[in-house]
Amino acid sequence: MNFAELFDPAGHGPYILASYGVTFVVLLWNVAVSLLRDRRLRHEIRNEIRARKAVP
Amino acid sequence: MWSSIKTAFHQLGSPPTFYGFAGRLIPWLALITAALMGWGLYGGLALAPADYQQGEGFRIIYVHVPSAWMSLFVYVTLAVAGVVALIWRMKVAEAWITSSAPLGASFTFLALVTGSLWGKPMWGTYWVWDARLTAELVLLFLYFGVIALNAAIEDPRSAARACALLAIVGVVNIPIIHYSVEWWYTLHQGSILANPAKPTVHPDMLWPLLWMALAFNFLFFTLVLLRMRTELLDRERGSRWVEDLLG
Predict the structure, then answer these.
(1) Nearest one of B230, B225, B218 to B38, comparing CA atoms
(2) B146-174: per-residue pLDDT in tens?
(3) Cα separation of B93 and B96, whole Å?
Protein backbone atom coordinates (compact mmCIF):
# COMPACT_ATOMS: atom_id res chain seq x y z
CA MET A 1 0.00 0.00 0.00
CA ASN A 2 1.30 3.40 -0.92
CA PHE A 3 -0.38 5.93 1.38
CA ALA A 4 1.32 8.85 -0.37
CA GLU A 5 -0.37 7.91 -3.66
CA LEU A 6 -3.63 6.92 -2.02
CA PHE A 7 -4.10 10.23 -0.22
CA ASP A 8 -2.22 12.43 -2.70
CA PRO A 9 -3.80 15.91 -2.36
CA ALA A 10 -3.10 16.61 -6.02
CA GLY A 11 -4.80 13.39 -7.13
CA HIS A 12 -7.94 11.63 -5.89
CA GLY A 13 -6.80 11.74 -2.24
CA PRO A 14 -9.28 14.36 -0.99
CA TYR A 15 -12.22 12.49 -2.58
CA ILE A 16 -11.10 9.16 -1.09
CA LEU A 17 -10.58 10.74 2.34
CA ALA A 18 -13.94 12.51 2.21
CA SER A 19 -15.77 9.32 1.14
CA TYR A 20 -14.27 7.13 3.85
CA GLY A 21 -14.56 9.95 6.39
CA VAL A 22 -18.25 10.63 5.82
CA THR A 23 -19.02 6.90 5.76
CA PHE A 24 -17.38 6.22 9.11
CA VAL A 25 -18.82 9.34 10.73
CA VAL A 26 -22.36 8.36 9.65
CA LEU A 27 -21.95 4.70 10.65
CA LEU A 28 -20.39 5.53 14.03
CA TRP A 29 -23.07 8.17 14.63
CA ASN A 30 -25.70 5.45 14.09
CA VAL A 31 -23.91 3.14 16.53
CA ALA A 32 -23.61 5.89 19.16
CA VAL A 33 -27.21 7.07 18.81
CA SER A 34 -28.57 3.51 19.03
CA LEU A 35 -26.54 2.74 22.17
CA LEU A 36 -27.31 6.05 23.88
CA ARG A 37 -31.03 5.83 23.17
CA ASP A 38 -31.12 2.32 24.64
CA ARG A 39 -29.22 3.41 27.72
CA ARG A 40 -31.38 6.49 28.29
CA LEU A 41 -34.63 4.53 27.92
CA ARG A 42 -33.51 1.82 30.35
CA HIS A 43 -32.61 4.51 32.87
CA GLU A 44 -35.99 6.19 32.37
CA ILE A 45 -37.94 2.93 32.77
CA ARG A 46 -35.95 1.96 35.89
CA ASN A 47 -36.83 5.32 37.45
CA GLU A 48 -40.51 4.82 36.59
CA ILE A 49 -40.50 1.35 38.20
CA ARG A 50 -38.74 2.70 41.30
CA ALA A 51 -41.26 5.53 41.56
CA ARG A 52 -44.16 3.07 41.26
CA LYS A 53 -42.67 0.81 43.95
CA ALA A 54 -42.10 3.77 46.25
CA VAL A 55 -45.84 4.56 46.33
CA PRO A 56 -47.27 2.80 49.42
CA MET B 1 -39.34 -28.63 9.04
CA TRP B 2 -42.19 -26.27 8.09
CA SER B 3 -43.83 -26.63 11.49
CA SER B 4 -40.57 -25.79 13.30
CA ILE B 5 -40.15 -22.66 11.12
CA LYS B 6 -43.76 -21.73 11.92
CA THR B 7 -43.17 -22.28 15.65
CA ALA B 8 -39.97 -20.17 15.58
CA PHE B 9 -41.84 -17.41 13.66
CA HIS B 10 -44.57 -17.31 16.30
CA GLN B 11 -42.13 -17.49 19.22
CA LEU B 12 -40.02 -14.63 17.83
CA GLY B 13 -43.21 -12.65 17.34
CA SER B 14 -43.45 -12.39 21.12
CA PRO B 15 -41.60 -9.24 22.32
CA PRO B 16 -39.96 -10.82 25.44
CA THR B 17 -38.69 -13.83 23.45
CA PHE B 18 -37.42 -11.58 20.67
CA TYR B 19 -35.78 -9.24 23.17
CA GLY B 20 -33.78 -12.07 24.74
CA PHE B 21 -32.92 -13.66 21.39
CA ALA B 22 -31.68 -10.34 19.94
CA GLY B 23 -29.66 -9.64 23.08
CA ARG B 24 -27.79 -12.93 22.71
CA LEU B 25 -27.19 -12.35 18.98
CA ILE B 26 -25.95 -8.72 19.05
CA PRO B 27 -22.42 -9.28 20.51
CA TRP B 28 -21.69 -11.98 17.93
CA LEU B 29 -22.98 -9.86 15.06
CA ALA B 30 -20.88 -6.90 16.26
CA LEU B 31 -17.78 -9.09 16.45
CA ILE B 32 -18.32 -10.45 12.92
CA THR B 33 -18.95 -6.89 11.65
CA ALA B 34 -15.65 -5.64 13.10
CA ALA B 35 -13.70 -8.57 11.61
CA LEU B 36 -15.31 -8.22 8.17
CA MET B 37 -14.91 -4.44 8.15
CA GLY B 38 -11.23 -4.70 9.10
CA TRP B 39 -10.55 -7.31 6.46
CA GLY B 40 -12.56 -5.48 3.81
CA LEU B 41 -10.78 -2.18 4.46
CA TYR B 42 -7.38 -3.84 4.38
CA GLY B 43 -8.27 -5.59 1.13
CA GLY B 44 -9.78 -2.48 -0.45
CA LEU B 45 -7.14 0.04 0.57
CA ALA B 46 -4.01 -2.12 0.68
CA LEU B 47 -4.35 -5.36 -1.28
CA ALA B 48 -6.45 -4.35 -4.30
CA PRO B 49 -4.37 -2.81 -7.11
CA ALA B 50 -5.18 0.67 -8.43
CA ASP B 51 -7.52 0.70 -11.42
CA TYR B 52 -5.76 1.21 -14.76
CA GLN B 53 -8.24 3.93 -15.81
CA GLN B 54 -9.61 5.37 -12.57
CA GLY B 55 -6.39 5.15 -10.55
CA GLU B 56 -6.71 5.27 -6.74
CA GLY B 57 -10.13 6.96 -6.94
CA PHE B 58 -11.81 3.65 -7.72
CA ARG B 59 -11.34 2.66 -4.04
CA ILE B 60 -14.39 4.78 -3.23
CA ILE B 61 -16.48 1.84 -4.53
CA TYR B 62 -15.62 -0.08 -1.32
CA VAL B 63 -17.87 2.26 0.64
CA HIS B 64 -20.18 3.45 -2.16
CA VAL B 65 -21.35 0.11 -3.57
CA PRO B 66 -22.07 -1.57 -0.17
CA SER B 67 -24.03 1.56 0.89
CA ALA B 68 -26.04 1.50 -2.35
CA TRP B 69 -26.76 -2.25 -2.04
CA MET B 70 -27.82 -1.77 1.58
CA SER B 71 -30.11 1.15 0.68
CA LEU B 72 -32.10 -1.21 -1.59
CA PHE B 73 -31.90 -4.24 0.70
CA VAL B 74 -33.12 -2.34 3.77
CA TYR B 75 -36.07 -0.94 1.85
CA VAL B 76 -37.08 -4.44 0.70
CA THR B 77 -36.96 -5.68 4.33
CA LEU B 78 -39.05 -2.62 5.28
CA ALA B 79 -41.72 -3.59 2.75
CA VAL B 80 -41.67 -7.26 3.85
CA ALA B 81 -42.00 -6.18 7.50
CA GLY B 82 -44.83 -3.89 6.35
CA VAL B 83 -46.73 -6.84 4.85
CA VAL B 84 -46.18 -8.89 8.04
CA ALA B 85 -47.26 -5.95 10.22
CA LEU B 86 -50.44 -5.37 8.23
CA ILE B 87 -51.47 -9.03 7.95
CA TRP B 88 -50.40 -10.50 11.31
CA ARG B 89 -50.24 -7.27 13.34
CA MET B 90 -46.95 -8.38 14.86
CA LYS B 91 -45.34 -5.83 17.18
CA VAL B 92 -41.89 -7.13 16.25
CA ALA B 93 -42.55 -6.39 12.55
CA GLU B 94 -43.77 -2.91 13.49
CA ALA B 95 -40.59 -2.38 15.51
CA TRP B 96 -38.56 -3.50 12.48
CA ILE B 97 -40.19 -0.80 10.33
CA THR B 98 -39.52 2.05 12.77
CA SER B 99 -36.02 0.81 13.62
CA SER B 100 -34.73 0.09 10.13
CA ALA B 101 -35.97 3.23 8.33
CA PRO B 102 -33.31 5.60 9.82
CA LEU B 103 -30.60 3.04 9.04
CA GLY B 104 -31.83 2.69 5.46
CA ALA B 105 -31.87 6.48 5.13
CA SER B 106 -28.26 6.60 6.37
CA PHE B 107 -27.13 4.04 3.79
CA THR B 108 -28.98 5.89 1.01
CA PHE B 109 -27.43 9.20 2.09
CA LEU B 110 -23.99 7.56 2.05
CA ALA B 111 -24.59 6.04 -1.39
CA LEU B 112 -25.50 9.48 -2.75
CA VAL B 113 -22.64 11.37 -1.06
CA THR B 114 -19.89 8.85 -1.83
CA GLY B 115 -21.28 8.52 -5.38
CA SER B 116 -20.97 12.29 -5.80
CA LEU B 117 -17.44 12.22 -4.43
CA TRP B 118 -16.57 9.50 -6.95
CA GLY B 119 -18.40 11.33 -9.75
CA LYS B 120 -16.44 14.57 -9.46
CA PRO B 121 -13.03 13.18 -10.46
CA MET B 122 -14.47 10.56 -12.86
CA TRP B 123 -17.36 12.41 -14.58
CA GLY B 124 -16.28 15.95 -13.84
CA THR B 125 -19.41 16.73 -11.82
CA TYR B 126 -20.82 15.93 -8.40
CA TRP B 127 -24.36 15.44 -9.66
CA VAL B 128 -26.36 14.79 -12.82
CA TRP B 129 -30.10 14.21 -13.09
CA ASP B 130 -29.41 10.72 -14.34
CA ALA B 131 -32.07 7.97 -13.94
CA ARG B 132 -30.06 5.96 -11.37
CA LEU B 133 -29.11 8.99 -9.24
CA THR B 134 -32.59 10.50 -9.36
CA ALA B 135 -34.28 7.21 -8.42
CA GLU B 136 -31.84 6.81 -5.51
CA LEU B 137 -32.70 10.35 -4.36
CA VAL B 138 -36.40 9.40 -4.51
CA LEU B 139 -35.53 6.42 -2.27
CA LEU B 140 -33.99 8.80 0.28
CA PHE B 141 -37.22 10.84 0.25
CA LEU B 142 -39.24 7.65 0.74
CA TYR B 143 -37.15 6.81 3.81
CA PHE B 144 -37.67 10.38 5.08
CA GLY B 145 -41.40 9.90 4.48
CA VAL B 146 -41.48 6.74 6.62
CA ILE B 147 -39.48 8.44 9.40
CA ALA B 148 -41.67 11.58 9.32
CA LEU B 149 -44.92 9.57 9.26
CA ASN B 150 -43.77 7.54 12.25
CA ALA B 151 -42.90 10.72 14.15
CA ALA B 152 -46.15 12.47 13.22
CA ILE B 153 -48.61 9.83 14.48
CA GLU B 154 -48.75 9.52 18.25
CA ASP B 155 -50.13 6.00 18.58
CA PRO B 156 -47.18 3.70 17.71
CA ARG B 157 -49.41 0.96 16.28
CA SER B 158 -51.28 3.32 13.94
CA ALA B 159 -47.97 4.95 12.99
CA ALA B 160 -46.45 1.58 12.14
CA ARG B 161 -49.45 0.64 9.97
CA ALA B 162 -49.24 3.95 8.06
CA CYS B 163 -45.47 3.46 7.60
CA ALA B 164 -46.09 -0.13 6.44
CA LEU B 165 -48.44 1.12 3.72
CA LEU B 166 -45.96 3.75 2.54
CA ALA B 167 -43.14 1.18 2.55
CA ILE B 168 -45.19 -1.25 0.45
CA VAL B 169 -46.23 1.42 -2.07
CA GLY B 170 -42.67 2.75 -2.30
CA VAL B 171 -41.16 -0.65 -3.05
CA VAL B 172 -42.02 -0.04 -6.72
CA ASN B 173 -38.97 2.26 -6.78
CA ILE B 174 -36.56 -0.62 -6.05
CA PRO B 175 -36.71 -2.33 -9.50
CA ILE B 176 -36.61 1.14 -11.07
CA ILE B 177 -33.30 1.86 -9.30
CA HIS B 178 -31.90 -1.57 -10.09
CA TYR B 179 -32.83 -1.64 -13.78
CA SER B 180 -32.45 2.12 -14.46
CA VAL B 181 -29.02 1.56 -16.02
CA GLU B 182 -30.55 -0.94 -18.48
CA TRP B 183 -33.84 0.83 -19.22
CA TRP B 184 -32.38 4.27 -19.91
CA TYR B 185 -29.15 5.73 -21.27
CA THR B 186 -27.43 6.78 -18.08
CA LEU B 187 -24.05 8.11 -17.08
CA HIS B 188 -23.96 5.62 -14.23
CA GLN B 189 -22.15 2.41 -15.06
CA GLY B 190 -23.92 -0.97 -15.20
CA SER B 191 -23.83 -3.59 -12.48
CA ILE B 192 -20.43 -5.22 -12.00
CA LEU B 193 -22.21 -8.37 -10.86
CA ALA B 194 -24.92 -8.48 -13.55
CA ASN B 195 -23.67 -12.00 -14.28
CA PRO B 196 -22.26 -13.32 -10.96
CA ALA B 197 -20.55 -16.20 -12.79
CA LYS B 198 -18.60 -13.70 -14.95
CA PRO B 199 -18.01 -10.52 -12.93
CA THR B 200 -16.53 -7.58 -14.83
CA VAL B 201 -14.06 -6.85 -12.01
CA HIS B 202 -10.83 -8.70 -11.25
CA PRO B 203 -11.10 -11.00 -8.18
CA ASP B 204 -8.38 -8.98 -6.36
CA MET B 205 -10.72 -5.99 -6.53
CA LEU B 206 -13.97 -7.93 -6.17
CA TRP B 207 -13.27 -9.86 -2.95
CA PRO B 208 -12.71 -6.80 -0.73
CA LEU B 209 -15.96 -5.39 -2.13
CA LEU B 210 -17.82 -8.54 -1.12
CA TRP B 211 -16.24 -8.45 2.38
CA MET B 212 -17.27 -4.82 2.79
CA ALA B 213 -20.80 -5.59 1.55
CA LEU B 214 -21.05 -8.40 4.11
CA ALA B 215 -19.66 -6.09 6.83
CA PHE B 216 -22.33 -3.48 6.04
CA ASN B 217 -24.98 -6.23 6.17
CA PHE B 218 -23.82 -7.46 9.57
CA LEU B 219 -23.60 -3.88 10.85
CA PHE B 220 -27.18 -3.29 9.74
CA PHE B 221 -28.43 -6.42 11.52
CA THR B 222 -26.47 -5.50 14.68
CA LEU B 223 -27.95 -1.99 14.74
CA VAL B 224 -31.47 -2.94 13.75
CA LEU B 225 -31.65 -5.57 16.51
CA LEU B 226 -30.29 -3.07 19.03
CA ARG B 227 -32.82 -0.44 17.96
CA MET B 228 -35.66 -2.97 17.94
CA ARG B 229 -34.87 -3.96 21.53
CA THR B 230 -35.10 -0.28 22.51
CA GLU B 231 -38.32 0.18 20.52
CA LEU B 232 -39.92 -2.90 22.12
CA LEU B 233 -38.89 -1.77 25.61
CA ASP B 234 -40.46 1.62 24.95
CA ARG B 235 -43.72 0.16 23.64
CA GLU B 236 -43.98 -2.45 26.42
CA ARG B 237 -42.74 -0.28 29.27
CA GLY B 238 -45.86 -0.86 31.37
CA SER B 239 -45.86 -4.65 30.95
CA ARG B 240 -44.87 -7.30 33.46
CA TRP B 241 -41.87 -8.64 31.53
CA VAL B 242 -40.23 -5.21 31.32
CA GLU B 243 -40.79 -4.70 35.05
CA ASP B 244 -39.22 -8.13 35.77
CA LEU B 245 -36.31 -7.31 33.46
CA LEU B 246 -35.46 -3.84 34.73
CA GLY B 247 -37.09 -3.70 38.15
Answers:
(1) B218
(2) 999 999 999 999 999 999 999 999 999 99
(3) 5
Separation CA B34–CA A55 (nearest Å) = 46
Best interface-test mutation with A: which of B56, B65, B106, B241 has the largest number of A CBs within 10 A? B56
ipTM of the complex: 0.91
Q: Which residues of B touch A15 (CB under 8 A)?
A: 57, 60, 117-118, 120-121
Residues of chain B contacting A37 with CB distance shorter than 8 Å: 227, 230
Q: Position B55: which residue type?
A: G
Compare CB distances from A12 to B56, B230, B246 and report the shortest one's residue: B56
Which residue type sits at B239?
S
Q: What is the pLDDT of residues B13-46, one digit of tens each?
A: 889 999 999 999 999 999 999 999 999 999 999 9
Task: Give the count of beta carbons closer than 10 Å to the beta carbon of residue B199.
Answer: 16
| pTM, to two decimals | 0.93
